[in-house]
Prior knowledge:
Blueprint: H1 3-17, E1 22-23, H2 26-29, E2 46-49, H3 53-66, E3 70-73, E4 90-93, E5 100-104, E6 109-112, H4 118-126, E7 130-131, H5 144-150, H6 157-160, E8 167-174, E9 179-183, H7 195-199, E10 207-215, E11 217-218, E12 222-230, H8 233-245, E13 257-261, H9 263-271, E14 282-290, H10 292-308, E15 313-316, H11 320-331, H12 333-338, E16 343-346, E17 349-350, H13 356-370, E18 373-379, E19 384-391, H14 397-413, H15 432-435, H16 438-451
Parallel strand pairs: 2-4, 3-4
Antiparallel strand pairs: 1-2, 5-6, 6-10, 7-11, 8-9, 8-10, 12-14, 12-15, 13-14, 13-18, 16-19, 17-19, 18-19
Helix pairs in contact: 1-3, 8-10, 8-13, 13-14
D-malate is lined by residues 79, 136-137, 333-334, 346, 348, 378, 386, 421.
Amino acid sequence: MSxxxxxxxxxxxxxxxxxxxxxxxxxxxxxxxGDESEQEPVLPDVVVLASDRDDVVATLRIASELGAxxxxxGAGTGKSGGCVPVCGxxxxxxxxxxxxxxxxxxxxxxxxxxxLVLAELxxxxxxxxxxxxxxxxxxxxxxxxxxxxxNAGGPRAFKYGVTRDYVLGLEVVTAEGTPLFVGRRTKKGxxxxxxxxxxxxxxxxxxxxxxxxxxxxxxxxAVATLLGLFANIDTAMRAVADIxxxxxxxxxxxxxxLEVMDETCVAALxxxxxxxxxxxxxLLILEVDGDxxxxxxxxxxxxxxxxxxxxxxxxxxxxxxxxxxxxxxxxQFSLVTRKLARSKISEDVVVPRTMLASFVGxxxxxxxxxxxxxxxxxxxxxxxxxxxLLWDDPADEPRVELALxxxxxxxxxxxxxxxxxxxxxxxxxxYLALEQSSELIGLQRRIKDSFDPKGILxxxxxxxxxxxxxx
Length: 471
Ligand code: MLT
Ligand code: ZN
């Protein structure tokens, strides 16, 4: 934006919302410039601290009138640049709208504001005997609005599905500042297009969420967590195929989580002081839930399937404290692996589960061919792999880019997909055409245009940065 336009924007917002909700100046706005991805932070011209829907309506009306970009923002834990205000303008901070408006145990739903921290939602519904399954690993920090924007997943997605499967309806404000309710509160409903499903995962490019109606399920009575010790990632991946796909001994099984960590990850955990069993080269975390009898049986089945597939051992967490420590180790992966190099990209590609063993072989070959350090962990149960590329010297970047491109080509050749939970954002926009036809990208651009005719909502995301929708 030009300096004059930015000044006009700031003064119009301050007049409408009051000075306390409008942050101006580098010191105050720099905390709203970046996220957890490799995307360079970009300072917004102004930050709005929304505390209710009226603030969002006023902000969007002003921005629309002035043609100013608006980037909605939750906790900034995203991994694809989704909330980075790459075109400047307004960073619209939603964390001040964090109320739980309603939990209805009989209808098994909750209505919450977008700034609510996910772990707080988990605790509140579980106190009522209910369960909200999506559990991205940033759950102690990330907020519902961001989860909805990115259609977040997490380890439990294997059994329970992702955020979209739990959003019944949304209260949103359009780019022009019109409040709308889309969706429903009922179990079933097929009226009109499924606009709710479209908005979930639209990365803040179509509308701004101001409240979410979420479907809940009954909290499982019992949970058990197992740790499978494997000599290497290849054996662990073959075990995943046997567990989920079945063998001559029995049908496929559905533990609620099935997470894998390769040799580099296990070594990094040891370096961090986590006492990992010496027999483990690679690890699987397997978690089952249900009633007490189901859990006993599932532990038995899953454990013996892992042993048959070559696990050196399968250990069961003995109590909540041990379970907690196991998940703490897993949830810290992103941070632990960040220490391994000066720069890192964490991808979240998805491949068919039957291809996982061949996939890790291809990752190894790409790493060797381009001399780029790579490690792999992630949600093996649903084929969603966090391949991380690590490098120290900026001069290595061209090789990293080639390795990344080759990785994406390999994934598409396996009929996989570029992103399973982090979104396209800015990080993968240039690769969108590897997976989608120009006709499909064009159709999505037209959808974007009809929601946001002036192209002010989160510009520079999803689509390659040319033409309408770019800065
Ligand atoms: C995870 O599964 O840990 C998160 O999706 C973040 C990541 O490591 O890329
Ligand atoms: Zn993940």
